[in-house]
Write a structure and sequence with these properties.
Low-confidence stretches of chain A: 104-122
Family (chain B): Belongs to the ParA family. MinD subfamily.
CATH class of chain B: Alpha Beta
Mean pLDDT of chain B: 94
Oligomer: heterodimer
Subunit structure (chain B): Interacts with MinC and FtsZ.
Structural class of chain B: alpha/beta
GO molecular function, one term (chain B): ATP binding
Shape of chain B: globular
Protein name (chain B): Septum site-determining protein MinD
Largest sheet of chain B: 8 strands, mixed
CATH topology of chain B: Rossmann fold
Radius of gyration of chain A: 21 Å
CATH superfamily of chain B: P-loop containing nucleotide triphosphate hydrolases
Keywords (chain B): ATP-binding, Cell cycle, Cell division, Nucleotide-binding, Septation
Number of helices of chain B: 13
Number of helices of chain A: 4
Strand content of chain A: 25-35%
Number of strands of chain B: 8
Mean pLDDT of chain A: 83
Helix content of chain B: 25-40%
Strand order of the largest sheet of chain A: 5-7-9-11-14-15
């Protein structure tokens, strides 16, 4: 037999539409990602219509929206939810029906549905419930790992000049001496954990600290947790030793 | 079955060529038929260190481009039996190295019954260095006890485990050996150099040897003689230890402890 048909699972990004106003969506998209060339890397995308009204007529500019997403290096491959008209339109555009897709963003879309009258300008950062990315090999100078849309666990050392990036939390069960960037898509609740904290750079949701300012002795080379703390509207990284 | 060993470092001037020459000569002294290839196309040095620069007629690039055959290009070493040098071309650049060409030459050398093929890598992480490591079975990572050298070696180790043929084909990983050169125990003690512990803490690969900092190396290269032939010197002994460990023998580390200055030195300074 020259082939084998197997089932597989595949994490993909979901774009939850909070309004049927595709014109506005495209404007908001341009504003947020218009100049972020290279942000996406041919990631598969699910269009989630479940927050839209069940009696929605066909979307005015679906093909233009798809073209915009493709231009941003996303690959729309499936859709979920939506009125009969919208579903028919999506199927005609070549999208697969994915109503059974694992529901990591349900809570988000549900809350969006209740406030559908006032859509927020950008889709909030999402962390789908896929497993963490596990790396068992040392990361050496010049190497980079990005756990897109999930947590990152590294069981070996992260050396100076290496970079670990995750949209979720980062766990390093070895010396962390390179750069660690958690909450890369803006998740302010993301944390960085390391069993031996000697990082060159720590960043959570864009707030960072370099080793120019040495780590305090109570956490340097110790097991520690880094999180983002809001203090009088200012954000700073809080680094605590783990007992 | 011949074994391909790359001598690499990332950083320049740390002792790759010195090590390639002494390592290859040391293997030949142990009776192995060995060839050492200079991959530093355009900046050839190995032939100078090996003292055969006047005998280079055809080089590695000529063989790759099939302008000469291996028998014409291999230079027989005058010091030891069974050692051959394949010089780099001085007039070309790294683009002259084609992957297919390199593979063909390595296969031909294996067919000629060489036990060891030592590839002297150029500095950097570009085409020349990648080509030198691509087909390697084992790697000697040459590192000086200073931060920038350790960082560059770390980078090279990352490439050895991702960009080489063994890595790409998912075969057993390249066997990596850490060789520390220009080690000066007194300066380590004074905190001017990284210690063995500091280096291993970052690189975490098995240590195959430590070559002490010494004027012997400069004297040897000026004479066109691999340092391993400088009988009775610490450098020569240290390289011989490296060969023994490479061949599976146990040897205690030598020349790594600081020397107390003698009474006279303490009285009169250095």
């Amino acid at each position: 037999m020259s082939f084998e048909l197997k089932s597989t699972h595949w994490p993909l990004l979901a774009l939850a539409l909070r309004s049927a106003d595709t014109q506005r969506l495209m404007q908001d998209w341009q504003q947020r990602y218009g100049d972020a060339a290279g942000f996406f890397d041919q990631d598969a995308l699910l269009l989630d219509f479940s927050a839209l009204s069940d009696s929605e007529p066909a979307l005015a500019d679906l093909s233009a929206l798809l073209a915009l997403l493709r231009a941003a290096h996303l690959q729309p491959v499936a859709y979920r939810g939506g009125s009969a008209a919208v579903r028919q339109q999506a199927a005609a555009a070549g999208l697969a029906r994915a109503d059974d897709a694992l529901d990591a963003v349900q809570a988000l879309t549900a809350s969006a549905a209740s406030s559908a009258i006032e859509p927020t300008p950008t889709p909030a950062p999402e962390r789908p419930a896929v497993g963490a990315l596990l790396i068992d090999r040392p990361l050496r100078s010049g190497q980079q790992v990005y756990a897109r849309g999930r947590d990152l666990i590294v069981t070996a050392m992260v050396n100076p000049g290496a970079e670990v990036v995750a949209d979720g939390h980062i766990h390093i069960y070895a010396p962390l001496r390179g750069k660690a960037i958690a909450g890369a898509c803006g998740d302010e609740n993301a944390c960085i954990f390391a069993t031996c904290l000697e990082a060159e750079l720590l960043s959570i949701a864009g707030t960072y600290r370099t080793s120019e300012v040495p780590l305090p002795p109570e956490v340097r080379s110790k097991a520690a947790r880094v999180r983002l703390q809001r203090h009088n509207d200012a954000e700073r990284l809080l680094i605590e030793a783990i007992a | 079955m011949s074994k391909i060993v790359v001598v690499t470092s990332g950083k320049g001037g740390v002792g790759k060529t010195t090590t390639s020459a002494s390592f290859a000569a040391g293997l030949a002294l142990k009776g192995f038929k060995t060839v050492v290839i200079d991959f530093d196309v355009g900046l050839r040095n190995l032939d100078l260190i090996m003292g055969c620069e006047r005998r280079v007629v055809y080089d590695f690039i000529n063989v790759i481009h099939q302008e000469a055959n291996l028998n014409q290009a291999l230079i027989k070493d005058k010091q030891c039996e069974g050692l051959y040098v394949l010089a780099a071309s001085q007039t070309r650049d790294k683009d002259a190295l084609s992957q297919e060409g390199v593979e063909r030459v390595l296969n031909d050398l294996a067919g000629m019954g060489f036990d060891y093929i030592v590839c002297d890598s150029p500095a950097g992480i570009e085409a020349g260095a990648l080509m030198a490591m691509h087909y390697a079975d084992e790697a000697l990572v040459v590192t000086n006890p200073e931060v920038s050298s350790v960082r560059d070696s770390d980078r090279i180790l990352g490439m050895l485990s991702s960009k080489t043929r063994r890595a790409i084909e998912g075969r057993e990983a390249i066997k990596e050996h850490l060789l520390i050169t220009r080690y000066n125990p007194n300066r380590v003690q004074e905190g001017q150099m990284l210690s063995l512990q500091d280096i291993q803490d970052i690189l975490r690969i098995p240590l195959i040897g430590v070559i002490p900092e010494s004027e012997t190396v400069l004297q040897a290269s000026n004479q066109g003689l691999p340092a391993v032939h400088m009988q009775g010197t610490e450098v020569s002994e240290a390289y011989k230890d490296v060969i023994e460990r490479f061949l599976g023998q146990e040897r205690p580390l030598r020349f790594v402890d600081a020397q107390k200055p003698s009474l006279l030195k303490r009285l009169f300074g250095r």
